[in-house]
Amino acid sequence: MFSSSCCSSEKSTSIRAKDPPAATVATQAARRMSKYTVVFVRHGQSVWNLENKFTGWVDVPLSEQGVSEAQEAGKMLKEHKYEFDIAYTSVLKRAIQTCNIVLEELDQLYIPVEKDYRLNERMYGALAGLNKQETVDKHGIDQVMIWRRSYDVPPPPATEDHEYYPGNFPWAKDIPKDKLPLTESLKLTLERVLPYWNETIVPMVKSGKRVLIAAHGNSIRAIIKHLDNIPEDVITKIDVPTGVPLVYEFDEDMKPIKRENAAEHLSGSYLLNPDELKKKIEAVKNQTKAK
Ligand SMILES: O=C(O)[C@@H](CO)OP(=O)(O)O
Fold this sequence. Notes:
- By secondary structure, the chain is an alpha/beta fold.
- It has helices at residues 8-16, 22-33, 47-50, 64-79, 93-105, 132-139, 141-149, 186-206, 217-228, 232-235, 274-285, and strands spanning 36-42, 86-89, 113-115, 211-215, 246-250, 256-257, 269-270.
- The termini are far apart.
- Mean pLDDT is 91; it is low at 1-18.
- The chain binds 2-phosphoglyceric acid.
- The site of 2-phosphoglyceric acid has 11 residues, from helix 9.
- The active site is at residues 43, 121.
- The record marks 216 as: Transition state stabilizer.
- This is phosphoglycerate mutase (2,3-diphosphoglycerate-dependent).
């Protein structure tokens, strides 16, 4: 079964609180009503995160640090006694590796794992392969932040002559040409991910299966925007750290229930203490800096 406690700071509240504040009582009541739990994990650091390159659909592996982060994610879940019936991941090896490492740590490699390109990272268009900071130096921080974090402005497209044109990826051969994106904004990523969430993952959750999703910074941002109805101008400021489990609880209508220690703007909470979490989120933000 899923454990009811989530993180170190939650543990300390139970020691501290003789007369829990009203908010805690409300959260505890909400938790009793929670029916389903889904855990998201962004893959650990990839070799292109390490080299600070825009990646998107390019299929690069985890770095050494990324492998350790995925192991840590698995250990966190094990510590809190999470178990899963099925896992979903993308067709990109950094997410698949993360999924396998997490399941290995949990000693649950036996569960089915479904891979689908609709959980892929956003397709980063012609920026794929470029160094993020060099792109800032060339185009300016404002332009790069529009490409990187605006809700609906996609980067320039990767046309057929581009080194990372997605039609050349072996795993993409069955994607119909009209569905093959040459670039994606977060909005387009959401439009790709959401049908998979609604039609494949939600029915599985509602059937009582305990679901793990190992995916990517922007495919997870897209899903949480949908789950928490996060406004367009707020989701632009939200970054997902690498290799930290993010736990969501839902009521029977799949409406998220706010967890104690929920991350800012989210109903879900990360299984990491706030200081470490902040450092990991800053590391993502700092991939592009103003000069
Ligand atoms: O390059 C990418 O594919 C993504 C994730 O690493 O980057 P960003 O965080 O800049 O959207």
